[in-house]
Amino acid sequence: MIRQSVIFDVGKVLFEWDLRHLFAKLIDNAGELEWFLGHVVTPEWHFQHDAGRPLADMVPERRAEFPDHAHLIDAYAARFNETIPGPVPGSLDLVERLAAAGVPLFAITNFGHDFWHGFRPTQPIFDRFQDIIVSGTERLMKPDPAIYALAIERFGIDPAGALFIDDNPANVAGAEAAGIAAHRFEDAAGLEAELVTRGYLG
Question: Which PANTHER family does the record match to this protein (predicted)?
Fold first, then answer.
């Protein structure tokens, strides 16, 4: 059993993410952009993929519902990596420091199965992680208690010696309910202070 470990979220902790990063390139009018993100490619609709629904089902259904926006719905499927403009400042440096210190690293991410397979190979930082649980693959999403139970079992960790890092308060509370200490991420400086206080970093 791994006595001490750190478990990261991915979106908005390690990497920035917002659907606007893609669609602001494709829709010039600000009002039209807001309407589109509020009615067509909405976060709620996107989260169906995070929960395990295949793009092969989602995209044709949405195209049929909004035929005038079919090209934009196709862009969502084909250009999703453009919703992720780059790393959160400072976060990947902390991953490298933890890895150099020999701290076992894991991740639990709400991320669609298809999109993860398109994004993961572009980011060698994930080679530092021993295992990553992807919601769309497991068909379990944070903060479902089952995803934390799966992580404890599959990672082989002692939850009492683990620290979970997430920007979402509900996900933080879910980890704490599973017996894992948690840090609500706001920025890398705050996380660094927490890691030093807990003895993960010198």
Answer: ALPHA-D-GLUCOSE 1-PHOSPHATE PHOSPHATASE, FLAVIN MONONUCLEOTIDE HYDROLASE 1, CHLOROPLATIC
Q: pLDDT for 105-153, tens place per residue?
A: 999 999 999 999 999 999 999 999 999 999 999 999 999 999 999 999 9
Q: Give the pLDDT confidence of 167-183 residue by residue, as tens digits.
A: 999 999 999 999 999 99
Over residues 62-120, the pLDDT tens digits come to 999 999 999 999 999 999 999 999 999 999 999 999 999 999 999 999 999 999 999 99
Q: What is the CATH number of the domain that holds 182?
A: 3.40.50.1000
Work out the burial of residue 57: count CB atoms within 10 Å of its CB; fewer than 13 is exposed, 13-18 middle, 19 or more buried.
Answer: exposed
CA–centroid distance for 104 within its chain: 19
Pair 77, 117 in one domain: no
Specify the DSSP element, H or E, that contains 193: helix 188-197
Report the pLDDT value the prediction gives residue 202, as an integer from 0 to 100. Answer: 87
- Strand 131-134, strand 181-184: pairing: unpaired
Instruction: Concatenate the DSSP letters of all residues of 101-122 into one string.
Output: TT--EEEEE---HHHHHHHGGG
Same domain, 70 and 158: no
Task: Tell which of 55, 83, 111 closes a domain.
Answer: 83
